[in-house]
Amino acid sequence: MGASVLDVIFENWKNTRMKTFNTNELITDLKKITEDNITIVSKKFKHLSDEQKTWRPSRDSWNILEIFSHLNVYSAFYNSAFIEKIQKTKFKEAKDTFVSSPLGRSAWKSMKLGRANNIKRKFKAPKNYNPSNSPELVSSDAIEKFAKNQKEVIEILDLAKTVNLRKVKIPISISKIVRLRLGDALMFVIYHNERHMQQALNIIAHPKFPKKK
């Protein structure tokens, strides 16, 4: 298993430059990823059998239910944090551009898929977010919950258009002291969702993935 996400973020951020985005284009791109997640869940995962949902490619790999349960735990933290901080902020004037900080860019770059949709680097999930260590995190309706959470992310992105993505700060789940700019935090979470969606797609594409009976 790889290093922790936090280790990689701090390892790389000093050598990472700020990056400027067009705000509308950024929100549109993030919304597209999230809408694609909803579509893929409906087409590829919603009708899987229990056997398929719990099949794993190797002993140490997560199965599909574990992947979506992992994402749902993160959604429980971040979706509520996004909504609270957006609603309470005094920085209500949206800006045409968003400047990603070095720390924030290091965070979301660690999650972003490669050009061929490959998962470039594996990370060690924190114990309280890892279904292998905490099986109580896994729920039988994890796939349906994920789709619902993604619809909420669409609403959050619409709310984010109305505030300053640079001034609003979001705490991160893996550290009590680190806060990211709203734009960076949105990219971090949505690229993390996309990353694990690809992991789940890789499972159903596996040659030994069980056929539906």
Description of the molecule:
It is a single chain. With 213 residues, this protein is mostly helical. The protein has one domain (5-204): dinb family like domain (Four Helix Bundle (Hemerythrin (Met), subunit A)), CATH 1.20.120. 53% of the residues lie in helices and 9% in strands. It contains 7 helices and 4 strands; from the N terminus they run H-E-H-H-H-E-H-H-E-E-H. The chain has helices at 5-12, 23-45, 50-53, 64-88, 102-111, 142-160, 182-204; strands at 19-22, 97-100, 169-172, 175-181. The chain has a two-stranded antiparallel ribbon with strand order 1-2. It has a two-stranded antiparallel sheet with strand order 3-4. The longest helix is centred in the middle third of the chain and has 25 residues, at 64-88. The mean pLDDT is 89.
Topology:
Elements lengths: L4 H8 L6 E4 H23 L4 H4 L10 H25 L8 E4 L1 H10 L30 H19 L8 E4 L2 E7 H23 L9
Antiparallel strand pairs: 1-2, 3-4
Helix pairs in contact: 1-5, 2-6, 2-7, 4-6, 4-7, 5-7
In short:
With 213 residues, this protein is mostly helical.
Features:
213 residues; Four Helix Bundle (Hemerythrin (Met), subunit A); two-stranded antiparallel sheet; 7 helices; mainly alpha; 53% helix
* Secondary structure category: mainly alpha
Apparent shape: elongated
Strand content: 5-15%
> Biggest sheet, open or closed, and with what strands and sense?
2 strands, antiparallel
CATH topology: Four Helix Bundle (Hemerythrin (Met), subunit A)
Strand order of the largest sheet: 1-2
Q: Please write the CATH class name.
A: Mainly Alpha
**Helicity level:** 40-55%
Q: Give the mean pLDDT.
A: 89
SSE succession: HEHHHEHHEEH
In terms of per-residue confidence, which ranges show pLDDT below 50 for 5 or more consecutive residues?
none
According to CATH, the homologous superfamily is dinb family like domain
Helical stretch tally: 7
Distance between the termini: 34 Å
